[in-house]
Amino acid sequence: MNRFAEVRTWPLLAFALLMGLQAIVLVACLGGHAAQGWLVWVGMASLALTVLLAVAMVSSLSRAQDKARLAQRTLEEAIDALPASVEIFDEQDRLIAFNRRLVEIYPHMLRHFQRKSTFEDLVRESLSRGGIPEARGREPEWMEERKQARGKQVSPLLQRVHDDMWLRIYESRTPSGGIVGVRMEVTDLIHEQQRLAASRAQLRATIESAANGILTLDSGGHVLEANPSCEQLFGFTASELQGVHIGMLLGAAMSGHGAAVAAAQMDPQSLLGQPRELTARHRSGEALHLQLAIAEVRTDTIHLYVCIVTDLTERKRQEERLKRANELLARQSTTDGLTGVGNRRLFDQLLQQEWQRAARSERPLALLMVDIDHFKQYNDCYGHVAGDDCLRRVATLLRSCVGRGGESVCRYGGEEFAVLLVDTDLAGAQVVAQRCLDSVRLAAIEHEGSPVRRSVSLSIGVAARVPLLGEASQELIQTADAALYQAKQAGRARLICQQSA
To answer: 37: Cβ–Cβ under 8 A, 6 or more apart, which residues?
Structure first.
């Protein structure tokens, strides 16, 4: 700690004057009153006491000065050891004391410090060296602003010096009119704040430009912030979303009491973990399919939740369209393109499926093999276009006779159809077969080329049995086909029943 001490000599002069006065008294006594010897002894004793008193005072003063110097040295060493600079200005704003740290901050200013320069002179010197970047280009104005604020700042002054050093400056005015200044280097803190600000700006830009909706919730699940994607997703502005409970926002797909219950039960803490799919509604009422992922942010002073909301609505629509397309493709792959009934592939699948089910449940399964009589002659007589129309009409009649949705009627090949009857014994199958014969007969589809009658007729082979586990389903087909062959041999336009063994 450097200070400019003033040597005070008046105590020594006073002591010398006192000694001179004692000497004069003694001389006067010796010269003018020799007879009064006792006065001489009194004066000498007084002088001796004065000398002893002076010696004692000097000794005490010396000890006090030693203590004061020790205290001052200790104080100066303590101030020099401070990590912050300390500067003391008198009432004329001249630097009268400073510590080592100030010189470390401004090494080029040491001579000016030692000259007891004024604060204004010190600042002008720094400005001339370009040591205050924020004042460059406006030095006079900055200097005037600094002088006006000198010792009056309510809060510390933050100042950048030497391009890469930041100081926080505290100034306090003393009762005598001087100013004590403390300068703390906060470069690392400012750099950390700058990095934090840059990180926040980057995070904000990421959130604002994110394609997914991002919501910030308080500990109770109420919306604090919402990014633009969230505004677009729900159709509400960020200010409208603020304060809304997450349960009300995501429970909007429900109505009335259900929405209130969903809101009450949707606690952010319960939504932590794996992303989950939820439904909601746009402001317009459009249904939304969303995926919600929630993360918890907890510190000593903060407890928040961050929600990432992904819009799955279009993906769900695509999935639904794909599902319908696959169903259509599956139907097309198992549907006869001409008649609209099942094709041979569907018949094979149904037969295998129902055969195994009937075997497990020990229930009967029946099969009708249906053939259009003399269909080649029909094509020769009316043409293939009319023949196709005849096939379609017969398929429609068969489906109406079978009932149960008609899915068990399949085109077996050419003019031949197969009808699979679940949980139907031979008697029941015979009834269905007779219904088919009567329906086609009553439809009276003209057939001039038929030797049997002048309209289209059918020959039907009927078979039924209770399947056994391990048996092949082909046995039922063979039995029904054999019955069909017998019907044709017997003159056609009839049905033949045959119980499968």
So the answer is: none
The three-state secondary structure class of 142 is helix
DSSP per-residue letters across 37-79: HHHHHHHHHHHHHHHHHHHHHHHHHHHHHHHHHHHHHHHHHHH
List C-alpha distances in Å: 439 to 414, 432, 449.
21, 10, 20
DSSP 211: S
- The order of strands in the sheet holding 495-499 is 409-413, 416-422, 365-372, 458-465, 495-499
Of 472, 338, 400, 480, which is closest to residue 408 (Cα–Cα)?
400
Q: What is the pLDDT of residues 21-60, one digit of tens each?
A: 666 666 666 565 544 555 556 556 666 666 766 777 778 7
Dig out the tokens for 265 from the structure: 């039960």
Task: Give the CA-trace dihedral at 287, 290, 295, 301, to 10 degrees.
Answer: -20
Cα–Cα dist 482/497, whole Å:
10
User: Using an 8 Å Cβ cutoff, are 178 and 91 in contact?
Assistant: yes
Question: SS3 of 249, please?
Answer: helix
Residue 278 in contact with residue 292, Cβ under 8 Å?
yes
85-190 matches 210-316 in fold: yes
Residue 24: burial class (beta carbons within 10 Å; 0-12, 13-18, 19+): exposed
Output the DSSP codes for 403-446.
Answer: -GGGTTEEEEETTEEEEEEET--HHHHHHHHHHHHHHHHHHT-B
Looking at this protein, which amino acid is placed at residue 230? C
pLDDT tens, 133-162?
A: 888 889 899 999 888 888 888 889 998 887
Strand, coil or helix: 372 = strand
The full 3-state SS of 288-316, as one line of letters, equals EEEEEEEEEEECCCCEEEEEEEEECHHHH
Domain residue limits, the chain: 2-80, 85-190, 210-316, 334-499
Average pLDDT, the chain: 85
Highest mean pLDDT among 218-222, 239-243, 438-442: 438-442
- What class has domain 210-316? alpha beta
The CATH fold assigned to 85-190 is: Beta-Lactamase (3.30.450)
The string of DSSP letters for 319-356 reads HHHHHHHHHHHHHHHTB-TTTSSB-HHHHHHHHHHHHH
Q: How confident is the model at residue 463 (pLDDT cuts 50, 70, 90)?
A: very high
* Residue ranges in 117-172 assigned as alpha helix (H): 119-128, 139-149
CA distance 252 to 258: 9
pLDDT of residue 183: 93
- CATH class for the domain made up of 334-499: alpha beta
